[in-house]
Amino acid sequence: MPEHDTGGTLGTPAQEVGGFLRRRSEQVAQRWADEPLFRTVFTVSRDEAVEAGKAIVDALAHVADTQRVEDPDAAGFTGVREQLARMGAARSRAGLSATQVSAELAALLPPVENLLVADLDGQEPERVRECTTALSVLMGTLRLVAMQTALSEVQALTDRQRLQLLEVATPVIKLWDGIVAVPLIGTLDSARSQVVMETLLEAVVDQHARFAILDITGVPTVDSLVAQHLMKTVAAARLMGAECVVSGIRPAIAQTMVHLGLDLGTVKTRASLADALGYCLHELGANIVNAAPDGAGRR
Amino acid sequence: MHTDAGVEARLPIRSDMDLVWVRQHVRQAAARLGFGLVDQTKLVTAASELARNTLVHGGGGLMEASHVADGGTDGLRLTFSDTGPGIPDLDRALSDGYTSGGGLGMGLGGSRRLVHDFVVESVPGSGTTVRVTSWVSRPPRPREEA
């Protein structure tokens, strides 16, 4: 078997690829720096792109050495996951779809493959074929790792936002001494309605509220489950000595509730938040007097 | 005229999140077919009730939305199917106030009043299919007195 002059050791194809990547990391990184993926992510300087490329090449070489070219969980990838995620995220922000990002990652293979073939010049065709196969499997795994990382980032973001939504979407607003209001927005599923009930009841205690207004202007659909949640909240508030008023029932919702057969029964309802506030103020004995139209207050 | 894209769909119903998709799709499809705001709201509410039934009682399933036409009138047909335990006593399940799941018991009977056509087929042990259809600008069906 002809011995390659710089390669020296002839292990498995994967190890051969690992050795090649280590020897040629500078050249590979230089070529990658000209590819669209690196050019668009590292816009400040080419050196930065080359450095990033070298880090990835080193990781690939490490994975190849351990003969786990098809394993996305290989230890070698750990170090570059963050960088791959950053690059993927930058491309997504630029408006590329996942498929396009994946295609850009795939475009990294040909330059390396050309280098490898040139490097293996003089070896048996069978050996060359085995090595290029190992390299494409390795690059495929790199692509998988990048997409996996991007996906898990998105998942983490979604989870965070869902939690934030639970917290943020239920502020309790003090409208007047003894009157609090909760503007409900979006879907009232079980988790959200539980949070609404808890925050409202706490506010009733903290603010010594006699009236609580639940405004459903921002709730797109009121079905029987939403109505049930509302009635439970109202009943719990009543046990604590606060009267609830449900406001913001739009005409379409009112008609739908009638057809559905929902009867909010003993619950006070008003068309708008202003009406509800007026009702509560009246019940508290507070009167609002409009200023005289001729500007009497200014004299 | 209308393109069926944006109306025709097969949506899985497996979690609370899927109910959100169902509602959004029905609202968009109904708006696209020219339903007024009140009819859109009725359809979305009926879809929400039926999809929740599919999820809670049927253990998950599927909603199919399709565009139907009768003469010059467009309609939206929604089919909810599951492979759950089925409904043993349909008449009772359709009556207001009867519940097996701790709800208000308005879902099935109530959603029947929100749509024009309502067909429910249930085989105990092998699943339930509810098919509802509503037509653009047609007077609502007369209320049935029990």
Automatic annotation (TrEMBL), chain A:
* The entry's keywords: Phosphoprotein
Q: Where is the STAS domain?
A: 169-280
Instruction: Give the highest taxon in the source lineage.
Output: Bacteria
* UniProt keyword Phosphoprotein, yes or no: yes
Instruction: Please indicate if the UniProt record lists Phosphoprotein as a keyword.
Output: yes
- Protein name as catalogued: Regulatory protein
What species does this protein belong to? Streptomyces toyocaensis
UniProtKB/TrEMBL annotation, chain B:
Q: Where is the Histidine kinase/HSP90-like ATPase domain?
A: 38-138
Q: Which InterPro entries match?
A: HATPase_C_sf, HATPase_dom
Per the UniProt record, one Pfam family is: HATPase_c
Determine the domain of life of the protein's source.
Bacteria
Which protein is depicted? Anti-sigma regulatory factor
